[in-house]
Amino acid sequence: MNDAQDPLDALDDQHAAAAFRRLVRHLRHRHDAQNIELMGLAGFCRNCLADWIRDAGYAGDKEAARQLIHGMPTEEWKATRQTPASEEQIAAMEKSLTRNKPDLR
Asked: Which end of the chain has the least Cβ crowding within 10 Å, N or C?
């Protein structure tokens, strides 16, 4: 499908925003789904969402955006939610990222 004719662009911003908030809250609840695993499977993670809201015009800095997505400061997230990445997870992430569209990197 040509992105210029993507029906997603016709989705009302109110509905898109509600779905985005639901996704973020789901990811906050499912902290067992590690960022490295999300990257390996889908090529994006919570930190990507933080970058994307900044790209969309969010005025906060990188830390503020990550705190908004994580629901807590990054250092607290890392200390309480993040586990060390295995070599296999890192390799899966790197392979997955090669499949992303250039404008999503």
From this structure: N
